[in-house]
Amino acid sequence: SEKIFMESFIKIGENFRIIFQKLFKGGDVSLKLTDETKPLESGIEIQAQPPGKRARSLRLLSGGEKALTAIALMFGVYMVKSSPFCVLDEIDAPLDDQNVGRFLTLLDDFREKTQFVLITHNKKTMSKADTLFGITMDEPGISRLLSVELKAG
Amino acid sequence: SEKIFMESFIKIGENFRIIFQKLFKGGDVSLKLTDETKPLESGIEIQAQPPGKRARSLRLLSGGEKALTAIALMFGVYMVKSSPFCVLDEIDAPLDDQNVGRFLTLLDDFREKTQFVLITHNKKTMSKADTLFGITMDEPGISRLLSVELKAG
Amino acid sequence: MFIKELEITGFKSFGEKTHVVFNSNITGVVGPNGCGKSNILDALKWVLGEKSVKSMRGDKMEDVIFSGTENKKPAGFAEVDLILDNRSKIINLDYDEIKISRKLFRDGQSIFSLNDNRTSRKEIEGLLMDTGLGKASYSFMQQGQMDMILSSKPEDRRHIFEEAA
Amino acid sequence: MFIKELEITGFKSFGEKTHVVFNSNITGVVGPNGCGKSNILDALKWVLGEKSVKSMRGDKMEDVIFSGTENKKPAGFAEVDLILDNRSKIINLDYDEIKISRKLFRDGQSIFSLNDNRTSRKEIEGLLMDTGLGKASYSFMQQGQMDMILSSKPEDRRHIFEEAA
Ligand SMILES: Nc1ncnc2c1ncn2[C@@H]1O[C@H](COP(=O)(O)OP(=O)(O)OP(=O)(O)O)[C@@H](O)[C@H]1O
Ligand SMILES: Nc1ncnc2c1ncn2[C@@H]1O[C@H](COP(=O)(O)OP(=O)(O)OP(=O)(O)O)[C@@H](O)[C@H]1O
Ligand SMILES: [Mg+2]
Ligand SMILES: [Mg+2]
Q1: Which of these, B11, B59, B140, C84, has the minimum number of CB atoms within 10 Å of its CB?
Q2: Res A151 pLDDT > 80
Q3: Whole-angstrom Cα distance, residue D121 to residue B57?
Q4: C window 17-56, beta carbon within 8 A of B
């Protein structure tokens, strides 16, 4: 009901800030209800300000900044009510090398309780995985699991 | 009018097929009017079938297949009425290494008449450029052109 | 790991039976464009009871059944089996291992099974209800979908927050 | 090359005057997330007369003016100057080089110039009409927008084809 929603909403806002500041090495965010008198119906306002920049409309953020902000929010929600596994499909695609690294470091905070499956084309992300599955289509149109590369240590 | 539209539409369809088959090394596409009796109002149906696969809804194509198909279509239009320059902003993002290579090879067909500006995070794309501009924000929030690396030959 | 094994037969591009064994906390899935990586994510969503055809990129539910190639006939059904580690009893059943299966035939007949006993989707949904698994938005961050929560209108964002509450 | 030089002052994240000289047929633009690469594309669109604030990711046209940082005051105006090689007379004017400028002040005053002579947007649009430059969809393939032509409804796709005809 209202109380339950507000508690989790406030917690998500705090998590969102913590994770955003980890990924951006600074900056600030805010998560607000457009109408605080109607928590169960109100829309949700998001503000995000990378370090050293002024808070502007989310739309003015760059492709990579938006992606990193969305990651911070989704993981902020995740901290409140997580699932035992999480499949991430190419969410590193818009990120530059440094931000991929920061995203991968973030996974360390979750990996104990959460099993991750990372679908990716990114070499840094591939080396973070303990196990790598390669999918191929040597026969056109038919997927095969071709290789399982286990990393030592 | 109708005649002009149909001529360019048919040409675009042919170009689309040629470029698609270059990028996918095979396969087929079709570009049709939903209502052939009303060329100036009709919607436009697109079908794309990568080699060895059956024609299915565009939505079932993978992220990279959609990106490559969109590139084939945009360049197909471009061949009919080109502009002297073209700015491509990270359109290589969803492509695997091999497809980035095929996309870069495609640019050779256009580079004589068209000046390209390629915004990218991809190392293969960077090495295709004759000149590289680096943009940085050492002072947060302020963009600077930091380096111009000219490639020999 | 929570997901131990996944077996996919006749589901989307998996025209042949494919067995995936998970044995680590971070598993990478790689391969060229169109080879079937996102289809694995779809298979996982589907076996957990996903109802929305659109969210699996199809037009009708039958679209998830392998539709054949030049050299291989279309499949008569799609089947995905998921084996879960339940030692922590995250699912309220007295088993250390739980197998969830979903099978869809071309004529539309749909079969859900729990440890090889036929059950209903509602049953599966009920079991997964409090585990966080039932709700796709946490467990699956899909290709190209991350942007949406930021670009959607304030009113349209509620569902993510409501699911968490 | 057709685009010879671009000078950007007070436009979006270009708080300081930035001069870009183009001298090759394939120019790469690289840098970390958020450094300003797509803003360069926006600057090019804008100086060529782009009317749509939305297509430049803003809410109002004033959003393109550098809005300052902790250490630098907001700019009073945004200005972009574009120098084009017109030896092929693609633009119907008897000049080998053409300079197009656009300036926007905070109070909304907007100034277009052609070779340093004040002109109107309509004039600029007219000159660019048959060059392919006026229509953004060919010359600019924007970040994250490529998918749209495939995912839009058949009726909504017409504009690309109409522009080409
Ligand atoms: N019912 C079906 N039968 C056969 N093939 C199918 C079916 N549904 C989808 N496919 C095929 O699956 C392929 C898409 O697979 P998927 O989306 O998993 O690719 P991907 O590996 O994620 O690629 P990318 O790296 O480009 O995202 C498409 O080529 C599509 O034609
Ligand atoms: N009016 C403005 N004043 C100052 N900064 C602005 C203004 N408008 C946008 N910005 C800033 O410009 C940055 C976005 O730049 P841009 O979109 O060019 O990045 P990018 O280099 O393309 O990054 P990516 O690789 O992530 O796509 C944002 O951080 C945004 O805050
Ligand atoms: Mg995919
Ligand atoms: Mg960008």
Answers
A1: B59
A2: no
A3: 42
A4: 31-35, 37-38
